[in-house]
């Protein structure tokens, strides 16, 4: 099955990186139906003006609403099969949508997938290249323990107890069924996490650790 994708990018004053993120997604989308929805959290650096001709820009209803409210807003405005939530400072490989499509075809759509990306905040730190977006929590304060996947030891997919939302993909039907992200749960300065008890039976969270 050739899936269609809706990429949702909340942004606030990301400057040139917003353009690079949008361009990176567009370059990877050859042959796929893609919509890119940029949610502007009332930034004032003019960066969203540079992507209006490459994406659909929606202004958040309230200033500084935060990424979770804006991700949920973007999801409500989307129209395609798979929702891909992307931070506004990431780059993807040209095989990005090929690999996502192959993963959903191989594993089924009853999954949420942590994607292969390069976080532009770590361009000068090769040890952070690739997917670092799976982790577990290790104490009552919900401190994160991030998984590292040496390339020689990494399987194609790996089950993960938690996925951060820097770049994740989830079928639209499942996202709608659970009511989106839980904006009442807050740590690390942002609302987070779909409530696991509301996911359908057998739903799995996996990451693609290869870069």
Question: Which features does this protein show?
Answer:
211 residues, alpha/beta, three-stranded antiparallel beta sheet, globular
Could you outline the blueprint of secondary structure elements for this entry?
Blueprint: E1 5-11, H1 16-28, E2 34-40, E3 56-59, H2 67-77, E4 82-86, E5 90-91, H3 96-107, E6 111-114, E7 118-119, E8 134-137, E9 144-146, E10 158-159, E11 162-163, E12 167-171, H4 172-177, E13 186-187, E14 190-191, E15 204-207
Parallel strand pairs: 1-2, 1-4, 2-3, 6-15
Antiparallel strand pairs: 4-12, 5-7, 6-12, 8-9, 8-11, 10-15, 13-14
By secondary-structure content and strand pairing, the structural class works out as alpha/beta
State the helicity in percent bands.
10-25%
State the domain count.
1
Major sheet details: 8 strands, mixed
CATH class label: Alpha Beta
The second-level CATH architecture is Alpha-Beta Complex
Terminal CA distance: 24 Å
Structure overview:
- The protein is of the alpha/beta class and 211 residues long.
- The protein has one domain (5-207): Spore Coat Polysaccharide Biosynthesis Protein SpsA, Chain A, CATH 3.90.550.10.
- The chain contains 4 helices and 15 strands.
- The strands form 4 sheets. Strands 3-2-1-4-12-6-15-10 form an 8-stranded mixed sheet, with helices on both faces.
- It is globular, with a radius of gyration of 16 Å.
- Mean pLDDT is 79; it is low at 126-133, 188-192 and 195-201.
